[in-house]
Structure of Membrane-bound lytic murein transglycosylase D:
Amino acid sequence: QLSLAAYNWGEGSVQRAIRRQERAGQPTDYSHLRMPSETANYVPKLEAIKRIVSEPEKYGVKLPDVGNEPFFVTITKPTDIDTKTAAKLAGMSLTEFKQLNPSFKLPVIVAAHNNVMLLPADRVDEFIDNLVSWMDNGQPLSRWTTYKMKAGETLASVAERVGMTEEDLRSVNRVPAGRKVLANSTLLVRANTDEQVDISAAAADAELRLSPLTTWRRVNYRVRRGDTLNSIASRWHITQRSIIKNNRLRTSRLSAGQRLILTVPNVKRAPIREVQRPTVSR
């Protein structure tokens, strides 16, 4: 009973409830633990279902006959296949297919990484027939490949190169907005050819290296003599446009003593080192 409660409520929650009972000198069995009503009713419901299934006549219930055969079948795939294509060949919606195969989070199922999929038993024949027709027509099962970022490249330039938008490229590779992808990172991109080349296990497991997350702070800056928008922007590692926008400036001319609000990145500063005085020997 406690194991079932832990399955519903969480092992840590059950352990804390047991410790509370122990400190109070109270019994620690299932029926005495203080727990949410959902968990408290979970085991009784399962027990009720068990008894009804075991003896339906006793409770006036007529259960339908269930054939002694698997409801789901595991399919082994020797080559990469797009997730949408797999769902289409099985005659399923993409949502249904992903619910049955929740580990398939990418637009392509990489055979070298995960070479099995789960299908309803009554969909297997349809899947195989459609798969044979698809391959007889010479259509690739997957239109995805990998690309290793080079020094100086950006997501925007790679997206343009492979015929994708930067937004789609970020979404497929789960790159948060505002983060840059560093050189030598491996990206999942659309293939520019109809000839299918499967993604290797090493490429599928390759690390995606992102730039550190930038945090920002507000600074009240007093303009000094000789300051310009360009010099202030360069000094604080921001753009002139951000200064103009934050302060609603109508001209680029600044006056000494003028106050500006700057939104600047937090930059790690070198620690202040203690200056050691020279030792004087006598």
Q: What stands out?
A: The chain has a mean pLDDT of 87. The chain has four domains: 2-59, 72-136, 144-204, 216-265. The longest helix spans residues 37-54.
